[in-house]
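S1.2 Input.
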Amino acid sequence: MKTSDDVLRVEAMDAGYGHVRVIRNAKVSVRAGEVVGLVGRNGAGKTTFINAVAGLVSASGGTIAVNGQNLRGMPANKRVAAGVAIVPSGGRLFRSLTVEENLTIGVARPSAQQLETVYGLFPEMTALRARYAGKLSGGERQMVAISRALLLQPRLLLLDEPSEGLAPIVVLRLAEAIKSLCSSGMGILLAEQNIKFTDLICHRWYAIDKGDISTVEQVVARDASRQTPEAAAY
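S1.3 Output.
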């Protein structure tokens, strides 16, 4: 039973590949209408965490609750039905399909209103409906990938490094669109190493390093404790 406004609540979760544990004792929450960042360098464990929530990587122990329902052990397709959608790094479209075919491939009979909603979010896509995905720019691919996830009508949207490799003007355009989604009450978890992008859109963030996840407050307290007495005096 849901007892708070948390769209996502992860408690004491471990995750990894086979016998290799990448994520250790993770604790993360995302509230309705909130964008939360998961910030770390390459290899820190961001993608593993995102994929564990989506059901694409095995998680052991703890809880992965979406809207109060524990999804741990549930296959990825069932998590989609429970309100989880993921946009993997790079978008990963079907290059031989058109934009509109990519949008609708995972959705049974999307309504005209649903399609117009995503075209309204990214008007740039309107002229690209019939273009093959293999001919899109990186920014255009990311817009289509986000729109495809939104057609699943998620309560929790997982974004894995959406700004990676994109021009600054495109990053600003994505930031604007992602922020506008909050008004619907959707929760968004954003894995990024681009701190400037994270600062643009996130209400708060976590840091991840070698699979260990910390709140901002924990990072600040840890850094303060490492100061020498001489440095602290200044």
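S1.4 Remarks. The mean pLDDT is 90.
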